[in-house]
Specification:
It is a single chain. By secondary structure, this protein is mainly beta. It has seven helices and 37 strands. The strands form ten sheets. It has a five-stranded mixed β-sheet with strand order 1-31-32-33-34, with no helix packed on it. The protein has a four-stranded antiparallel β-sheet with strand order 2-37-36-35, with no helix packed on it. A hairpin with a 4-residue loop joins strand 8 (101-105) and strand 9. Helix 3 packs antiparallel against helix 4 (564-582). The longest helix has 24 residues, at 629-652. The chain is globular, with a radius of gyration of 23 Å. The N and C termini lie far apart (51 Å). The model has no long low-confidence stretch (mean pLDDT 97). Calcium ion (CA) binds at residues 154-155, 230-231, 276, 278.
Length: 653
């Protein structure tokens, strides 16, 4: 009934009716069309036979968990044009349910409470100042009658915080800022005064980052709430904090008193974050024996590629080891608890390839811990990125303000340093022993951006993946027991539950999110993706999916008439602004429009869409505040060029 199943968020279920002996008999029990081609990232909740989940644009669905019949649907009419202020798709990672109410954080910053029986709105509060580029897409957590919610926006330039609201009334109870504000305005807490000593320059002008947009965990015995804190804003620390410093609490796990929001301890995974290495990744609490002693630990595999085992009472680092090859650091020094950075990989204006890139060695698809096998199952990936520093600091409201050199972000430009070291993108499901802090076995996958993981007492591990399958493995050795094609990539964490004596396994399958949007990462090897669906499986399930969608013909692009100079200007703008949703080089991953394939009427309406906001209702806000008519013509010309490039590629095949 709560995100990750328990406060410790192990994503392990004690149900064993479906197990390693009978999983081969699984089949589809039911599915619900979620009415979207955008990403689905929500982990459903199941309470008393009713499943609650969020889809695109914060629509909440209540479903009979046995039959799949929708009981009610609530559309909070989130302000879709706010998608411009949100990284990485119109997704939501889940709901909270408590004492007859369903809670959701909305893209536009609202936190809402809805009647679990009827779907009627009970209360709503605005958790952000909408004049800044904040967004909310993480699942709220309920702790001691309080609703906990963070926010996102570090890529744009905001200051992160977490707020607790009274679950009954929506009254604000406490707020914990994750990075300090302007010291001249006074500090909200002793923790902020302490944190400010680790910053230099005028970081507060553009927020500093540190947004807590996903992971929390809670230990009721210690009454500690654990907050996973995000990256710095902008990314290069030399720009953000020119005199150096660790920049607390960026990329940290912070433990606070759940009743007051007062700081208790922190562990910073990436001091002075320079690479968008968020520590917002899923955190798991477990009691495990280390060096012969039982320890209460918190475990995390953040973007930076290291797996951390930390004493959750004190914050003491117990072990740290990299789970993918990384170039930014050589190891974590256990004497200091700090990573030892590799200065060879410090980047410059020209750009340098570093591993991992901003998608991380592990993104936000949740991992799972099985106390039966003693293993943590991590959806890992290897991706790299040409990090660079902008020669001139700029800030534009409503745009990504990464602090990167905009010339380096244009595909096909001069190669960055260490380009020959860029590894091919890949994905691996790793079974990790947290006692020894090492890999035990692995499953190589077709590419990055695979789904979240569930384990069960039936010795099962479940994961949807980018190649369009939902797969059940043996949890102890990774043997495939059953798989089903689901016609799209599946990112979200699966769940399992029992209704009327029947065990089900369910997952939201819908391709999207950061890899698909910013990099044009494809699911199923580039085959067209089906609409997002909520799928439930059971033993003997005999339901089938409709036939998969077929590829649509690519329209012939208009003739290319613009000058090379105009196209180059358009390339620079597109690959610094538009790529955030439409993919570097205008290659779409399938969940947003591929702008190389615009129909004649879209070409005709291009200016009206980009400047006039004609498609704001679909999340494409107007960019009239940052782009001129000439800019838009140049972007249009670049897209026509890219369409012709594709035609030439296809003709050459
Ligand atoms: Ca980030």
């Amino acid at each position: 009934m709560t995100h990750g199943r328990t406060y410790g968020e192990q994503r392990f279920s004690p149900l064993a009716r479906i197990n390693d002996q009978n999983a081969g008999e699984l089949g589809l029990a039911w599915y619900l069309d979620m009415g979207t081609r955008r990403g689905l990232e929500a982990t459903p909740l199941v309470v008393d036979g009713v499943m609650y989940t969020s889809g695109s644009w914060n629509v909440i669905h209540a479903i009979d968990a046995g039959s799949g019949r929708e009981l009610w649907r609530y559309d909070p009419h989130t302000q879709r044009e706010r998608l411009r202020s949100a990284c990485c798709d119109a997704v939501n990672r889940g709901l909270a349910v408590w004492k007859g109410k369903v809670y959701e954080g909305l893209l536009d910053g609202r936190l809402i409470a809805v009647d679990a029986a009827t779907g009627g709105l009970i209360w709503e509060v605005q958790t952000i100042d909408q004049t800044y580029d904040y967004s909310v897409n993480g699942a709220p957590r309920i702790v001691n009658g309080k609703v906990i919610i963070g926010n996102g926006g570090a890529e744009f330039g905001v200051r992160g915080y977490v707020t607790a609201y009274d679950a009954e009334t929506g009254e604000q109870l406490w707020r914990f800022y994750t990075v300090p504000g302007n010291p001249a305005a006074g500090f909200e807490s002793p923790a902020m005064e302490m944190a400010a000593k680790t910053w230099t320059g005028e970081w507060w002008k553009y927020g500093g980052g540190g947004t807590a947009w996903d992971a929390f965990a809670y230990d009721p015995e210690l009454n500690l709430l654990y907050i996973g804190v995000g990256n710095g804003s902008p990314w290069p620390r030399d720009i953000r904090s020119p005199g150096g410093g660790d920049n607390l609490f960026l990329s940290s796990i912070v433990a606070v008193n759940a009743d007051t929001g007062e700081y208790v301890w922190h562990y910073q995974t990436t001091p002075g974050d320079n690479w968008d290495y968020t520590a917002t990744q899923h955190m798991i609490l477990a009691d495990i024996e280390i060096d012969g002693k039982p320890r209460k630990v918190i475990m995390q595999a953040p973007k930076n590629g290291f797996f951390y085992v930390i004493d959750r009472q004190t914050g003491e680092l117990l072990s740290a080891n990299n789970f993918i090859p990384v170039t930014w650091a050589t190891h974590v020094d256990m004497a200091t608890g700090r990573p030892v950075e590799n200065p060879d990989y410090y980047y410059t204006e020209r750009g340098k390839i570093v591993v991992p890139g901003p998608l991380g060695g592990h993104s936000w698809q949740p991992m799972s811990y099985s106390p039966l096998t003693g293993l943590v199952y991590i959806p890992t990936q290897i991706t790299s990125f040409p990090y660079s520093k902008t020669p001139v600091r700029t800030y534009k409201k409503g745009l990504w303000n990464l602090g990167m050199n905009e010339q380096v972000l244009v595909p096909g430009g001069p190669p960055p340093e260490k380009a020959d070291e860029a590894p091919p993108n890949s994905g691996t499901l790793i079974a990790w022993d947290p006692k020894q802090n090492r890999e035990v076995w692995r499953i190589q996958q077709d590419g990055p951006w695979n789904g979240g993981i569930l384990t069960t007492a039936g010795n099962l591990m479940a994961q949807g993946n980018a190649n369009g399958n939902f797969v059940i493995y043996r949890a102890d050795n990774g043997e495939v027991l059953w798989r089903m094609p689901v016609q799209t990539g599946a990112l979200a964490g699966p769940v399992t539950y029992m209704v009327d004596g029947e065990q089900y396994i369910a997952v939201n399958a819908g391709w999207g999110g950061a890899w698909s949007l910013t990099a044009g990462g494809k699911a199923q090897g580039g085959k067209p993706i089906a609409t997002g669906r909520l799928l439930a499986f059971k033993l003997g399930g005999a339901q089938t999916l409709p036939p998969p969608p077929e590829a649509e013909p690519i329209p012939q692009p208009p003739p290319l008439t613009a000058s090379e100079e105009t196209i180059a200007h358009g390339a620079l703008l597109f690959n610094n602004i538009c790529f955030v949703c439409h993919g570097a080089g205008a290659v779409s991953g399938g969940s947003t429009a591929d702008l190389r394939h615009m129909a004649p009427e879209t070409h005709a309406a291009f200016k009206e869409i980009v400047l006039g906001g004609a498609m704001a209702g679909a999340g494409m806000a107007s960019f009239a505040d940052v782009l001129s008519e000439d800019d838009v013509e140049a972007i249009h010309a670049y897209l026509i060029q890219r369409a012709h490039d594709e035609q030439a590629e296809l003709a050459g095949q």
